[in-house]
Amino acid sequence: MIIEQSHFLFTALYIFSISIGGLLLNRKNIIILLISIELMLLAINLQFVIFSVYIDDIIGQICALLILTVAAAESAIGLALLVVYYRVKGTININKINLLHG
Amino acid sequence: MLLTLVLLPLLSTFTVFFIRFIGNKYAAFICTILLGLTFFFSLKSFYYIALMQNPCYMQTLPWFLNENLTIFWGFLFDSVTCVMLIVITSISFLVHLYSIEYMGGDPHLGRFMSYLSFFTFFMLILVTGDNLVQMFVGWEGVGLCSYLLINFFYNRIQANKAALKAMIMNRIGDFGLSLGIMLIFFLCKSVDYHVVFSSIPFLIENSLYFFNIKVNLITCICLLLFIGAVGKSAQMGLHTWLPDAMEGPTPVSALIHAATMVTAGVFLIIRCSFLFEFSDTALDILTIVGALTAFFAATTGLLQNDAKRVIAYSTCSQLGYMVFVCGVSGYSASLFHLANHAFFKALLFLTAGSLIHGMQDEQDFRKMGGLSKLLPYSYSMFLIGSLSLAGFPFLTGFYSKDMILELTFSSYLFKGTFAYTLGVISAFFTAFYSFRLIYWAFLAKPNGYRYSYEHASESKFFIVAPLAILSLASIFVGYIFRDMFLGVGTSFWNNAIFVLPENNLILESEFIPTFNKLTPVFFSLLGSFTAFIIYNFLLKKIFTLNFVFIKIYTFLNKRWYFDKIYNEFIAIYLVKMGYSITFKLIDRGLLEMFGPVGIINKFLKLSRNLSNIQSGLIYHYLFVMLMGLIIFLSLIMGQIQNYIFISANILLIFVVLVFNFLV
């Protein structure tokens, strides 16, 4: 079986869709939310790398590196917020984060 | 002299501003003196203008100067005006004199006098105006003063209601009159009497299409003017205010509701004889309505128990006489009756006031009785007034009333016979109720409270003197002025009244059968004797009469149920309609729901729904983001494929959004 570009892209798309599903359907835990976001960034990274290889252009890989750092920073900040939130509320349940409703 | 005559009562009105400096008593005397001067001037003008046949016409200041509509403050003094002047100023002067004593105990005497003078001023404007608009000023002014005077005791609810009723009933008539004036302007392009009356003979063919029905314009004008006269002169239909207006003080009843204001309608008809003569339809309606009024009011007056109310219905009945004789073109007889009636009706009212005053303000004559010994002066005055009213031979009323009946008989038309018959029957009833009143008040056994009899006394000079003067007038005026007013070929009117040659009945009326000439007198005498006999000898029998009699009694005592019908079948429904349709349905319903309240409610609900979208839950926000992305993408895809598909899609999305978020 010849592995084509589309197979790689579909893999990335599936990962992205699963992560969206994780964001939408998860009703309990903020950590799963953060993990899903990481997964989304991962899928995007994968796409960048695939396109970089197939187009034969280094810029995609540069972007992938950049996104890696952004993702790391983001998850650091996210986890920090999570800790602060847990310190205040004593829980990390998403259903309880609706104090700012209209 | 002539303008002074008109403006003196206005000057007299202004005393009201100085009451606090000069006091009520002096204000009253000043008013009376000024009115006396007015009376003197009007006598003088009567001599110079009416007797010397020297009509005077002047235009003073301009009022409206538009392109086509030029109205001046103009004054026209001719025979008709001068007769009215004499009537108004003499009665007004005597009533002023009378009020000094009668209202002497009232803390607002000055205000009362001022109102009386103000009324006189407007009445003078009404009769002296040389155009219809100025006449209308006076017309409305006397309506206003009528309101103020009926409502003089403003803390009495009945007086308030009566005043409102008088104002509103008059206003219905004024509506017709103002329409009539507008039509006259439409037809003649002027409202000045001289222009209108001289151009009318050339305009008799003009007609108007109203609801696709062709109406002769002059008939239309005359009928509208007549509606005004119906309102002011209390003809059948709009008469209910007149008896209620008896809530005002007695001098007011004497001045306004007997002698002057109610005759304004008749004056209007007489003044507009130039118009009425050219419309046979209007004349027919005048005759029939007038005759019905005379009959209706006479029967109603039969069984009223309030002294003033009886006299009020008598006024109404006599106004009917004046109107129906106008309908057979007997304008001069109408004016003659107007003048005579003013004197004897003022006498009757003022005497009734004296009687009421003497009996501790008791108005119900069933609680009087036996006063001929206690109040002989009032008795004799009342007798003179009643005899004159009933048309006792050779008193004032006889000359005009019999002339009216002769004139109507000599018109060989159905309407003449109709009016004659009803007039004669009314004459019978008139005599009957006059003598019923006299019997109950003066001749019957005492029925009142002992206290009243202990304190019953004749009044002082200022009440007695006007009665004496009016009684002399009630006896002699008719005899003295008969030939001048009604003589065959009299030149007194001097073009002030116009009668078409084919309508002129003065000569015929002299040659009607003797039987028909004597009938009214006979019926009057019969009426007075019947009243005396019934109430003197058959009183016990009357109270044991049967069911039918009670029905008739109630019918007449409740004034033919006119008030009941107006209240329960018209007024209530109008008020209900005003509340449920105009107020509840339109104002508070449609206009508010499509207006401010509806918009406010809608936006409140909308914003509540929109803010509910912000649930605060993260996955909801994510869902909205995702859905937005999907919808946006699908729209773009759709647009690429097919335009119609996309617009249907947008529509669907829009509907779903609206349905979810807005409702």
The protein's oligomeric status is heterodimer
Instruction: Say how many strands of chain A there are.
Output: 0
The mean pLDDT of chain A is 89
CA-based shape of chain B: elongated
Main sheet strand line-up of chain B: 1-2
Please report the distance between the alpha carbons of the first and last residues of chain A. Answer: 55 Å
Report the span from N to C terminus of chain B: 81 Å
CATH class category label of chain A: Mainly Alpha
**Which percent band covers the strand fraction of chain B?**
under 5%
Domain count of chain B: the total is: 3
What is the count of structural domains of chain A? 1
Total number of helical segments of chain B? 30
CA-atom Rg of chain B in angstroms: 33 Å
Largest sheet data of chain B = 2 strands, antiparallel
Overview of the structural elements:
Chain A: This is NADH dehydrogenase subunit 4L. Chain A: It is found in: Membrane. Chain A: Belongs to the complex I subunit 4L family. The complex is a heterodimer of chains A (102) and B (663). Chain A is mainly alpha-helical and 102 residues long. In chain A, helix 1 packs antiparallel against helix 2 (30-55) and helix 2 runs antiparallel to helix 3 (59-89). The N and C termini of chain A lie far apart (55 Å). The relative contact order of chain A is 0.13. Chain A has helices at 5-25, 30-55, 59-89. The longest helix of chain A has 31 residues, at 59-89. Chain A has a single domain, classed as Helix Hairpins. Chain A is elongated, with a radius of gyration of 17 Å. Chain B has 663 residues and is mainly α. Chain B folds into 3 domains: 2-557, no CATH class; 558-612; 615-663. Chain B is built from 30 helices and 4 strands. In chain B, the strands form 2 sheets. A two-stranded antiparallel sheet of chain B has the order 1-2. A two-stranded antiparallel ribbon of chain B has the order 3-4. In chain B, strand 3 and strand 4 (213-216) form a beta hairpin. The radius of gyration of chain B is 33 Å and the shape is elongated. Chain B starts with a helix and ends with a helix. The relative contact order of chain B is 0.07. The model of chain B has no long low-confidence stretch (mean pLDDT 89). Chain A binds chain B through residues 20, 23-27, 33, 94-95, 97-102, and chain B through 610-619, 622-623, 626.
